[in-house]
Structure formats: C-alpha cells, structure tokens
Amino acid sequence: MTRSAAQWASPPRLPEDHYVNSLVYTDPGVFAQEREKIFARTWKFVCHESELPSPGDFRSLEHAGIPIVVVRGHDGLVRAFFNACSHRGAQLVTEPRGNARHFTCFFHLWSYDGMGRCIEITREDGYDQCGLGKNDCGLRSVRTAEKLGLIFINLDDDAPAFDSYAGNALDDLIEPMGTRPMEVFHYHRVPMKANWKQWHETNMELYHEWGHVVNRTTSVAAGGYHERKWKIHPNGHGSLDPLKVEYENYKGWDGRQDLLLPGLSQGEFRVVDIFPNTTVIIRGTTVRIDTSIPIAPGITLLEQRGLGIKGESAEDRAVRQEHHNQFWGPFGRNLAEDVIFVEAVERTNRHGASRYGIIARHEDLMSQDDEIVRAYYRVWGKYMGVSAAKPLGKGAPCEPLLETA
Amino acid sequence: MNNDDITRLIYASALKLDAEDFKGFLRHCGESFRYVIKAYSPELGKEMTWLDHGRKGMQDLFAMLPQHVRMKGRFKRHVSIYSVELQEDGSVKAHSSVLLIHTDPQGCSRLFAAGQYLDVIDMGGDMPRLAERVVQLETRELGPGMHIPV
Question: What is the ipTM of this complex?
Fold first, then answer.
C-alpha cells in the first residue's frame, strides 16, 4: 500500500532511537554543530605510525576544517600541531608527507622545530618594542595518542585520555596488529557525494551485505555468519565477533589459509568501529583502515589504507596486496559498491525525498542487528544534545518542506 | 616488426574495452598475459599496486562483472602511442598515454582517469598479442572506483 503525503511525512511509528531523520545527513547547521561538538572533542585517527618511520617525518591532513601536521620528533615521539604559522597564519606544511628538521614558513620565514617551538623570527629585533619573542609564538599543539600503531589526535585539551575513550574496543586488534610491526602499503581517497556518517554506517549496518555479491557469497553464506554478535562498547564504539569468511566461494579466489596475521585462523574477519568515523577491518591476511574527512553535509573525503607486515618479502607482500585489492582499493569488488550505495541514499536525502532512515532490526545483537547503529546514534545524540530522530531540537520543525533544486 | 600492426593492436584492444567486449579484449592477449594497475602515492612515498591479474584472473573478473553493482554509464579510452621499440628477444615495448572518459547516463562526459600503458607485445604468433600491460595511473581519486580494466 502506498502512503499519502501526510502519512509519508509522519515519523515512523517506532521508538525514537529506531529511526534517523535525514536532516542529520543534510542540514548545514547540524554539520557545523558536529564539527564543534564531536570532531573538536573526540579522538580522531590520523595515520599509522609506519607513515612516520624516521625522526623529522611528517604527514599533513585536515581535521574538523583545521589543517594539522603530525610529526615524529627527533626524540622519537609523535606530536601534532595546527599547520599554521603563528605570525600571519600561512599554512606551514604544504606537502602531504615529507621529512624536515625544522618547519620554515615560506611567507616570512619564521621557523619551528619538531616540538612546535618557534626557533626563528626573521629580524626579531623589530618586535623588541612590543616585547614579542619566540617563546610567545610556539605552534598550537594538538594532543596525540598511539595505540597498536594507530595515531589519534584530539583538538580538545580537556577531553578524556584516549585509553579511557577507547576502553576495550580495540581488544580484537591487539594480537593481529600488535604482535609484529605493520606498515601501510595502500592509500587512496574517495571523494563521495554523501554524508560522513553514511559511510560509517556501512561499517556497522551489515544488513546491506546482501547488496554485495562478494559479501553474499563469501560471508553471509558462510557458516556462523548469523550467530556471531556485536559488542556495544561505551562511547559509540563497536566490535563484532570473528567470522571465518569463505573466500573460495567467490570465483577465482583462494581461501586465505597462508600469511595469516598473528592470532587469526584461516579467512578470519574482524571489525572494530571507533566513534565517530574510523573503522579497522581485518580480513585474515590484511587490514583496512577507514576514516573520513567531512567536507560539507553531502560531501565527504574518504581515506582508505591497507596494511601488511613490515619488512616481509616481496612475494608475501604481493599476496597480501592481492587479498587487499580483491575487496578494497579503487578496483576492489566491494568498496566501489558501498560508495554507490551511499551516494544513492544521499540523492534522495538531499532535498527531502527520504525523510527517515529505519534502523529497527532486532536480532539479539547478531550480525545484522541494527543495535550497533542505534548505540552509535545514541552517543552522537549525547554529544549533539539532540536525538538523531529530531536533530533540530524538540521545539524546532524537524521536517522541511520539500525543496526544489 | 610492422608498426601498423602494433598500433592496430593497441587501438583495437582499447575499443574492445570501451565496448566491454571482454572476450574480444582477451583475444588480443597472450596465454601468459599479465595485467597490472599501479599508482604512486605521494602520501606514502611508495608505489602501490591496485590490480595484478594473469589471464585467468582477468577471465574470473570479467565473469563476475554482471553480478556486481557498478557506476552507470560508459567508459571511453583515448589512447596516444608515444613509442614502439623492438626488443632483443623479438618482443615489442610500446608506451602510450591513456585518458579514460566517463559518460554518465544523462550524457555528461568527464575525465575519469589519466595514465600510461606500458605494454609488452609478443610478436611470435600469428598476430601481435599483449603479453603484459602495466597501467601507470596519475589519477588516484577514481570516484567510487571501478571493476573493469583501464
């Protein structure tokens, strides 16, 4: 039976945490609030420690609209700073990666060391009259934390420590990622016409695995798929009991019995979701790290990394890369489909053709239970001070009139 | 070596891919054909391999394509051959530029990827055939990604 306009516009007859108003994906005000209330306050994955192997190595990125530089100091510690000169604000580092003993601004040649201290002010005596010196001009430091080679930053000096924030959520990664040194061998970005949360949902809402032929055949059809359970961790994180994926069910693929990461059995799959927008997925021999850079409500830059064992032979690396590329990377059989899925949703959300997303499946926390998504949005709501069902607040109208392009 | 034969092979194989005539494409490839897509990551300072298949791997990939969700529209390859060089072993190396243009179902075309073909061509049979194609991509942001060869 179809629905009239009024029926269609009414919120679903479901508990409030069982659906999401599409304004959480499209409203510019919600997006601005997310930057301020979530991204400026939570721990954000920025890179893997192997991307900064030597003293002076740096990576630059953008987080919550802020240019950031992450650098390994000559004391071996990883630090992060706003990537902005203290003088007139020019971006200090303009390359995505590199090695530098000092950072010298190309505008007026002020310099900073790897600990963020200002070490050179051009013709400094010109500031004597006003009493400004190098000690007043250090870079804005950003808190960093490292866990299992994953480097996180937090813009909030008062936020809880990373270990307290993450709790036990990363435990499933300890053996496979913490036993032997790993390194990133794959990096690519996907500019997506979709909201950043939509992508993170694809790593929690596994009901959509029916849409991927590769997941249908190798995972959903595998023994035990529907028996494993989600663990809902505090602070919006989640992890899923392991599964033995049957890769050989897909034409031409092997079963991934060799080159397994430490602690894993043949074809073993693990996933850990870290609030707000990072996911680590392990597929037996290789690891994918997802994170995203929200650009606008409907524009997201997705970052994808693939990891293998540091120092392994070229032959082993080639096998691991092949396994990575079967699912992931721009030519993988899974990744592109997820992007196409979420962009299709964004097209209907954009001007109100879809008003509500339903997250109402209950399966006793098993694979395709939506509780992991509901738990995520409950935490999102705590940060935002509104529910995902009524993201503009209780008194505000939650459903806009249909807009035209 | 007849340069026209090499030119015909490279252009004909591009046309087969444009038409998604994958069996036709493989007829231009030798039995030990290898197809690789690479890109350099400035973020990592490393060369990356994004696809690496032998002939069997390509056949399996093509066989599964109809079951996958893919970008709608068509891809067109614009290929310009830079050089063709006969090797001591009798094979030929050809170096080409390739531009991959995507046209969506509404008819909007845009440049999707830029790169180079580094081909090794086997001249030993009844006709020249691709023994190896390495696609070196300059473009690293490939929209959603794709399931077919560049």
Answer: 0.95
